[in-house]
Each structure stands twice: as structure tokens, then as C-alpha cells.
Amino acid sequence: MAPQDAPKLIEQAVRGFLDEVPALKQLKLVVRVDLQGRGDVQQFRLQMPEVQVKREIAADARVAVQMRRDFFNLMVEHGAKVADWRDAYEDGRLKVSGVDQYLRLIANVVERQEERNRTRRARR
Q1: Residues 6+ away with beta carbon under 8 Å from 24
Q2: Which residues, 6+ apart, have CB-to-CB distance to 113 below 8 Å?
Q3: Which of 34, 39, 84, 117 pairs as cysteine with 80 (C-beta 3.0–4.6 A)?
Q4: Are the C-beta atoms of residues 52 and 28 closer than 8 Å to each other?
Q5: What is the CATH number of the domain that holds 71?
Q6: Reading across the β-sheet that carries 52-54, which strands appear in turn?
Q7: Can you tell me the distance from the alpha carbon of 72 to that of 123, in angstroms, rounded to the nearest whole number?
Q8: pLDDT by residue, tens only, the chain of 124 residues
Q9: What predicted TM-score, i.e. pTM, was given to this entire model?
Q10: Taking the mean position of all CA atoms in its chain, how far away is CA 83?
Q11: Domain count, the chain
């Protein structure tokens, strides 16, 4: 993938994540996304709720996300779901840091959505 494709891939990943966890769609947040490639780190600024991605330093970011570029590309190409992103986080392939209140809020909302999904499947 070319470096100019990264903003489109980030937007695609975020929109897929928000489709699965609609409660986060109105969250106002700036996220720094660091994709580590061969010998360099590409930084992107993700602004929500508009889901605008730009290749620039996000000095006002409240949350930072770091992962290897090749792994990120694979996740997006294979249509990663929320559970896949959570597994990547638990395995240490995806690193998240930032303001604790935002991190807890996002974790709680995702956890509740996954619980609702499990409950819906159990009823069927």
C-alpha cells in the first residue's frame, strides 16, 4: 500500500468500528495514529465525530494509537471487527495511550455493545 492510501484505510477502519459500536459515533475526540513502517513512523490526525484523517502531527490528541503499518493493512484488508481490534490490543500488536477518562469511556461502551451482541445471539 502506498503512504497516500493510509488516510483512506484509517477512515475505513474507523467507520467499520463505529458501525459496530454506534454509541461512539457522536464522541468528540482527536486521535493520533502512529503507523510504524520500515524505519519510520507515519503520524496521522483523526478527528471525530466527522472522521477526518490528515497526515499531520496531532498535538491536540487525547488518545494515541500505535501499530505496525503492515499489520494495520492486513487488519483493514480482512475487514477486522471490534473483536479483532480487541484481540490485537490484548496481544500487544495495538497500543493505546492517552487521557484515562476517554480510554475508560471507550472501553466501557465497546464492552456493553459486545454484551448486547452476545445477548441478541443467545436469544436466537
Answers
A1: 17, 18, 48, 106, 109, 110
A2: 20, 21, 22, 23, 82
A3: 84
A4: no
A5: 3.30.1050.10
A6: 52-54, 41-48, 29-36, 63-68, 94-98
A7: 34
A8: 555 589 999 999 999 999 999 999 999 999 999 999 888 999 999 999 999 999 999 999 999 999 999 999 999 999 999 999 999 999 999 999 999 999 999 999 999 998 888 776 665 5
A9: 0.87
A10: 12
A11: 1
Residue with grid cell 472522521, as numbered in its chain:
51
Cell numbers for 114? 459486545
100: which 3 cell numbers?
484515562
**In terms of C-beta density within 10 A (0-12 exposed, 13-18 middle, 19 or more buried), how is residue 50 classed?**
exposed
Whether 7 and 53 have beta carbons less than 8 Å apart is answered as yes
Q: Which three cell numbers stand for residue 8?
A: 483512506
Domain housing 9:
3-123
Residue type, 84: D
